[in-house]
Structure formats: structure tokens, C-alpha cells
UniProtKB/TrEMBL annotation:
Alphabetized Pfam families for the sequence: Uma2
Protein name: Putative restriction endonuclease domain-containing protein
Domain Putative restriction endonuclease, first and last residues per copy: 10-180
Record-annotated membrane-spanning stretches: none
Source organism, top-level taxon: Bacteria
PANTHER family (alphabetical): SLL0198 PROTEIN-RELATED (PTHR34107), SLL1222 PROTEIN (PTHR34107:SF4)
Length: 205
């Protein structure tokens, strides 16, 4: 969705967007989408809690060393992106930014897919994350109960693996723990390979 009458979008345009929408500036265009569904939010929250416990607070024998932020605003060159979750290695941060956006690219980002963002998340945003030198990208689809993990190699995304439903995963950059994917869809039963996921699209935005 573009609201800038053909001219490149500015940060003032982004700040004018109503608060019930998520706004980004991508390749000069102002793009907005609605707040996500409960299923989307449940998956993002569960993943943030699980990774944060081990890699931010050192619970359950985790190594710590990270800071995670939900829906941070990232100023990456002329683009302003809002991933669902981002993580920074602590040694790269001297403190919180003085503004409501970070100009320090994270080390890891996660996009949780929904109807209004899937095409953008899988195409232009993945390209911009690579151009910014972000080392790791996770894509979570709570409707398909799918996790895809990518590592940046020579500015291209290398697919490390895809996992689904009830798999247990140890994936970069968080190989120090085993993540049970059933935790990411807490109110849904794990899907079998022959099951139709259509019911999980209910309420998708």
C-alpha cells in the first residue's frame, strides 16, 4: 500500500500511518499491513520466549549472549523494515538506541507469515536483509506449521533446512538448544503430512 503520490516515501509519511497498522518503507514505497492474527502472534510470542530464555537469560542451561526485540523498527540504508522478531549478539550493542529505530542491523531476523505479508516477506524483505548483511533468517508459517532456516553465504541465502509440525530442531545460530516446534502452535494439533491445513487459515490477516 503506497500513500506518497509517486514520490519516495519519507519517515514523516511513516509516522503519519495510523497506529493500528504496521508501516515500512521498502525501496522508496510506504507499505502497510494490519496487525497479525492471534495464531500468528502466538507463534511469534512462543518463539521469542523460547529463544529469549536460553540465549538472553541463560535459563535451561542456555549460553546467553543475545538480545531479542519483537517488531523492532530497523533503519537499513533508505529502507525501514519491521521483522516479527530480531536478535543481536550482545557484543555488537553498547546500549539501546536513542531513537525508536535501530541503525545497527541484527544478526538474526524472523518473519512469521500471514496472508497480507507472505509475498513481501519471502521476496523483497529477504533480499533487503541479505543486502544488509544479516547473517541468519528464519521463516515461520503457523498455518502450514513450517519452519525454514537460512544462513547468509556470499550475500545469498542458503537453506539450512525445513521442519514441520512436531519436529525437534537445532538450527543456526541457535544450535545450542533443541526447539520443539509444537511449542510454536500451542493451541493447534500437529498436522500430519496428508492433513489439509485450511482450517489453520481461519482469521488470517
Amino acid at each position: 500500500m503506497t500513500k506518497t503520490s509517486g514520490r519516495p516515501a519519507t519517515y514523516a509519511d511513516l509516522e503519519a500511518v495510523p497506529s493500528h497498522l504496521v508501516a515500512e518503507i521498502i525501496d522508496g514505497e510506504l507499505m502497510t499491513h494490519p496487525r497479525p492474527s492471534f495464531r500468528h502472534g502466538g507463534s511469534a510470542t512462543a518463539l521469542n520466549i523460547r529463544l529469549g530464555a536460553a540465549f538472553q537469560f541463560k535459563d535451561s542451561g542456555g549460553p546467553g549472549g543475545w538480545l531479542f526485540i519483537v517488531e523492532p523498527e530497523l533503519k537499513l540504508g533508505s529502507n525501514v523494515l519491521v521483522p516479527d522478531i530480531a536478535g543481536w549478539r550482545r557484543e555488537r550493542l553498547s546500549g539501546y538506541p536513542d531513537t525508536n529505530r535501530s541503525t545497527i542491523a541484527p544478526d538474526w531476523v524472523c518473519e512469521v507469515l500471514s496472508a497480507s505479508t507472505e509475498r513481501r516477506d519471502r521476496t523483497v524483505k529477504t533480499r533487503l536483509y541479505a543486502e544488509a548483511g544479516i547473517g541468519h533468517l528464519w521463516i515461520v508459517d503457523p498455518r502450514q506449521q513450517l519452519l525454514e532456516v537460512f544462513t547468509l553465504l556470499e550475500r545469498q541465502w542458503l537453506l539450512e533446512g525445513s521442519w514441520t509440525s512436531g519436529d525437534v530442531v537445532s538450527a543456526p545460530p541457535f544450535e545450542a538448544i533443541s526447539l520443539s516446534l509444537v511449542d510454536l502452535w500451542p493451541l493447534d494439533q500437529p498436522l500430519g503430512f496428508n492433513e489439509d491445513p485450511q482450517a489453520l487459515y481461519a482469521g488470517d490477516r
